[in-house]
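User: For my dataset I need records formatted as: sequence, then structure tokens, nothing else. Please produce one.
Assistant:
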Amino acid sequence: MSSIVSTSRGTQPQARLSSLESSSPWPSSAPFSQPETDYNDDEKAELLSVSWNQDYGCFSAGTSGGFRIYNCDPFKETFRRDLKNGGFGIVEMLFRCNILALVGGGANPQYPPNKVMIWDDHQSRCIGEFAFRSDVRAVKLRRDRIVIILEHKIYVYNFTDLKLLHQIETLANPRGLCCLSHHSNASVLACPGLNRGQVRVEHFGLKVTKFISAHDSHIACITLTMDGLLLATASTKGTLIRIFNTMDGTRLQEVRRGLDRADIYSIALSPNVQWLAVSSDKGTVHIFSLRVRVAGEDSSTNQSIAQDPGLVHQNSSSSLDALVPSKSGANTSSSLSFMKVMLPKYFSSEWSFAQFHLSEVTRYITAFGAQNTLMIIGMDGSFYRCSFDPVNGGEMLQKEYILFLKAESHRPRPATT
């Protein structure tokens, strides 16, 4: 599987970064179909993709007629490009700056689905183009890397000059599973391995590759902490979520979503690594309490890491604790868990601490917000913000509900039961 890369002469993609905070149409110099100024019919816009940015402060929405960028707190549309016939199946942000990775999608894709366009909205032009022999499944960005995921291969490029740095073979990966760390002092990538249920973790800075046998079934969803030290995984069975130390592959915790098979849509870890959220096709979003501690939680450790970036990895094997008492509430367990030696594993499972019920007819992805809140985006164009009690857990309280494609805000309404 080969790739073709083209780039504007003398361009350095990371130069002159600015914030995406406009509502202007595509400039005439852009390599897109000419936009029609009255093409703002939100009723006809089909939502093709949604994706959080790296710090979960905003998200992108690719539609059948362009794309949009939304800020989460406060919720508002900050940026949009409307095209009469230009669908985007992937719109990947680089934090909040003017660099975007775009892949065509839908019935009338703006670009072929086997191409990735790196767009600089500050310069109003494409600064890089990647072409492949098969469709692109996902794109992930760091400030120093561009990662492009195909079904059987992952390409890692240097962001400054677009040179190919790494090629990684994977098991069939139609979902485009791949995640990156985003701390500047830790360059970590996680993706499916070459065996069923296996996750491959690349510590690029240390030139270390770790293979983790996470599940017996195929991997369905993965996520990393910002520093890449923790990995959370779910399989196609969808009943258990497991948390691992990426340095030595140790399993630190296992929580149970349910008993029935489920298609896991997203796994989210809170910034303080205290909570984990899971969404699935069952309609219920679950929050679990984590019992792991990461070096760098307190200010003194953070200061040490800033002075010596290598400290994160040098101390990583001892900086993760599998059983740390939480200051908040604990996950629910069976009343028969005290008999776990005699009873099946099910009875000793950790069940979710808090829940939020949604419709089962659409796909949802989640991320943690400030002050014990969870944000949920639906492929039906809905945005929810809900809060949870960090001590007692239970049913989450809906705080905000917005149909963002129609730009309509609603008061909290009863959650679906």
